[in-house]
Amino acid sequence: MPVNILVVEDEPAIQELIAVNLEHAGHHVIRSKDAEGALDIVKYALPDLLLIDWMLPGMSGVALARQLRQKSVSLGLLLHEANLNRRAIRFESAAASVRRSI
Fold first, then answer.
1. Residue 46 CA: distances (Å) to CA of 11, 23, 38, 63, 102
2. 35, 61 in Cβ contact below 8 A?
3. C-alpha distances in angstroms, 65 versus 47, 50, 51, 90?
4. SS3 assignment, position 62
5. What pairs with residue 91 in β-bridges?
6. Closest CA to 52 of 71, 27, 70, 75
7. For position 84, what pLDDT does the model report?
8. What local confidence, expressed as pLDDT, does residue 69 receive?
9. Distance of CA 10 to the CA centre of its chain
10. What's the pLDDT at 58?
11. Of 17, 64, 72, 98, which has fewest CB within 10 angstroms of its CB?
């Protein structure tokens, strides 16, 4: 079943890698390069899942996740850290989806 996924990643190559693979799996991908852009997108189009880079310029991915939870935005959140030194994407933390409040 296709899912709407917002990918919040500041590194263009990593964002592209993630988006292409998710789209190949049949999902609809929305992209943002920073937390502020992601907050604007969430105001108008609530995705099913946010895939957030742990370290973003400006507001961090962790701060973005906390802000979304404080506003009672019910989303699936998955935080990741791209460790370029090891050339691998590690998934550090995930939060379960909670009910969607509209």
1. 23, 18, 10, 18, 9
2. yes
3. 14, 9, 10, 18
4. helix
5. 80
6. 75
7. 53
8. 81
9. 11
10. 93
11. 72
pLDDT of residue 45: 82
Residue segments in the chain with a per-residue pLDDT below the cut of 50: 85-102
Total residue length of the chain: 102
Q: What does the pLDDT read at residue 99?
A: 34
Catalogue all structural domains in the chain, each as residue range(s) with its CATH number: 4-95 (3.40.50.2300)
pLDDT of residue 95: 34
Closest CA to 72 of 93, 44, 42: 42
For the record, the structure tokens of 95 come out as: 């939060």
pLDDT for 96: 34
| 3-state secondary structure (DSSP) of residue 64 | helix
- DSSP codes, 1-46: ---EEEEE-SSHHHHHHHHHHHHHTT-EEEEESSHHHHHHHHHH--
Q: How far apart are CA 43 and CA 94, in angstroms?
A: 22
